[in-house]
Backbone:
């Protein structure tokens, strides 16, 4: 990310902000969708995050951390929406509108469906950790900063999430391997 | 499908594949339009900005580290103030219980006061709205003449030590070959005594009388004259106090009225012993509202 662009936007340069918004929107949306598992909610979260980027940019202390900061915003809006939905009793109903590349060695449809259902069963907080780590590629320490929770909490959430997914798959009489080694 | 697999790689693969790969353009456009009607928030104190990110070594998660100690310090300060307040109030109540208040209602401004414990102080029986007095013990000096036995005239004849409180509103003294009115502001009251009535005195210093600003001065008692609180500059002298004894004079303004307190003793040695007791007495004075 262009540090100069971020600094200009922090000073109120709308053109700089629009350039940042356009280049950030895709990665934020793809991440938000995988946390929220709903296109409308992901769109809402990204829109709120993009507006918040403009409004709160002066509070970003380190322009080099712009990308992580935007993840922080979008994850926060995703989780806020999930909590609101839980309070109002809204139940997520997943409509499968995904596209499968089917290009890797793990293309077993049953296994992938099993894992996808296990992902859907995770709480949004646990799923956010999984998505930030295994999809966005953040290390746990940075996820802790992004989510504003202790490092140990992130580690615990990831551990429990992976265990839950492994359990979901092994229930289907498969033998998972962690880190490529037989379990 | 192999019987074994790498769960982490599988998760990454599913996350990558299961979901959209593009963002709807309308999401970006709508957000940019909304941003046009949104003001940027510029924190007034960046160091204390709760939303600032990332935290630094002084700040964790938006200034929590610095705010928490501040909140703790404020809470501790409030608790300390409450404890001190309770202590002061309790001490005041205990003091009130220990030393019953007397009421002086003859003086032109009524006031409460307390006799120091074991001081043997007693009030003069010739109190006047312009002057009231207390003697500092039962001992008297009967062998002296009226003018020298107590060093004064009314209201504390024949005593050895005492306290006089007088109204300073229409006081006069002697100087420049005749009577003259003392100016009422405390500073002028004292300088008139010093410069016009030629009363020897030490440096004028600041003090308090019933919580009010006051001036005080030590008089060595090596000369001087008297302060008349009644009688004006023509006719009879009225009530007066001689300021020719070793003494301390305190002058203050009390809601527009000048009041003076005169702590005196027959000798300098007597005054040294008397002052701590008299000061305690004066400190107990509390003027009542009109």
Residues:
């Amino acid at each position: 990310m262009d540090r100069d662009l971020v600094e200009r936007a922090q000073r109120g340069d709308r053109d700089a902000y629009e350039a940042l918004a356009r280049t950030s929107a895709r990665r934020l949306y793809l991440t938000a969708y995988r946390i929220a598992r709903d296109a409308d909610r992901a769109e809402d979260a990204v829109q709120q995050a993009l507006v918040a980027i403009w409004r709160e940019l002066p509070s970003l202390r380190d322009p080099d951390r712009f990308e992580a900061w935007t993840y922080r915003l979008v994850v926060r809006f995703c989780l806020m929406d999930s909590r609101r939905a839980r309070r109002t009793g809204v139940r997520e109903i997943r409509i499968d509108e995904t596209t499968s590349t089917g290009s890797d060695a793990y293309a077993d449809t049953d296994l992938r469906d099993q894992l996808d259902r296990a992902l859907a069963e995770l709480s949004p907080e646990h799923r956010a950790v999984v998505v930030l780590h295994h999809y966005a590629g953040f290390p746990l320490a940075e996820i802790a900063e992004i989510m504003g929770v202790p490092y140990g909490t992130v580690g615990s959430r990831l551990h429990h999430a992976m265990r839950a997914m492994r359990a979901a798959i092994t229930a289907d009489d498969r033998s998972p391997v962690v880190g490529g080694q037989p379990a | 499908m192999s019987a074994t697999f790498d769960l982490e790689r599988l998760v990454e693969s599913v996350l990558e594949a299961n979901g959209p790969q593009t963002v709807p353009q309308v999401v970006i456009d709508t957000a940019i339009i909304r941003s046009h009607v949104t003001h940027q928030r510029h924190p007034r104190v960046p160091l204390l900005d709760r939303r600032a990110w990332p935290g630094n070594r002084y700040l964790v998660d938006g200034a929590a580290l610095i705010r928490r100690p501040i909140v703790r310090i404020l809470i501790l300060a409030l608790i300390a103030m409450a404890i001190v307040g309770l202590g002061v109030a309790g001490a005041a109540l205990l003091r009130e219980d220990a030393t019953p208040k007397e009421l002086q209602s003859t003086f032109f401004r009524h006031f409460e006061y307390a006799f120091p414990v074991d001081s043997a102080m007693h009030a003069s029986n010739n109190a006047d709205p312009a002057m009231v007095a207390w003697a500092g013990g039962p001992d008297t000096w009967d062998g002296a003449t009226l003018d020298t036995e107590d060093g004064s005239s009314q209201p504390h004849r024949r005593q050895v030590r005492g306290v006089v409180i007088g109204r300073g509103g229409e006081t006069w003294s002697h100087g420049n070959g005749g009577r003259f009115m003392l100016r009422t502001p405390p500073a002028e009251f004292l300088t008139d005594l010093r410069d016009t009535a030629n009363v020897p005195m030490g440096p004028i210093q600041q003090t308090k009388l019933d919580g009010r600003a006051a001036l005080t001065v030590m008089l060595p008692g090596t000369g001087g004259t008297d302060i008349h609180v009644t009688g004006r500059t023509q006719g009879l002298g009225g009530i007066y106090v001689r300021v020719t004894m070793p003494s301390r004079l305190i002058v203050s303004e009390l809601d527009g009225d000048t009041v003076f307190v005169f702590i005196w003793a027959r000798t300098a040695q007597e005054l040294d012993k008397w002052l701590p007791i008299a000061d305690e007495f004066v400190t107990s004075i509390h003027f009542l509202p009109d």
User: Anything to note?
Assistant: Helices of chain B lie at 7-17, 25-36, 64-98, 146-149, 186-195, 268-283. Chain B touches chain A through 46 residues (CB under 8 Å).
